[in-house]
Amino acid sequence: MAYYPDWAAPAYPPEKIDFARFDWIDYAFAVPDAQYNLTWDGSADGGGLLARLVDAAHRAGTKVKLSVGGWTGSQYFSPAVADDASRQTFVQNILAVYEQYGLDGIDIDWEYPGQAGDAGNAVDPRDTANFLAFLQQLRAALPQGAALSAAAQTVAFADADGAPAHDVSAFAAVLDWVLIMNYDAFGSSASPGPNAPLDDACGNSTQPAQNAAAALAAWTAAGVPAAQLVLGVPSYGYVSRSDATRLRTRAPPAGAQIYATSEDGSTDAGQMQFRGLVAQGILQYAPLGENGTDGAGSAGAGNGTDSGAPPTRVEIPGGELQSLYAGWSGFERCWDACSSTPFLRSEGAEQVVTYDDPLSLGLKAAFAREQGMRGVNLFDVSGDTDQWDLTDGCRTGLGLPV
Question: Where are the annotated segments for Disordered (predicted)?
Answer without folding.
Answer: 289-314
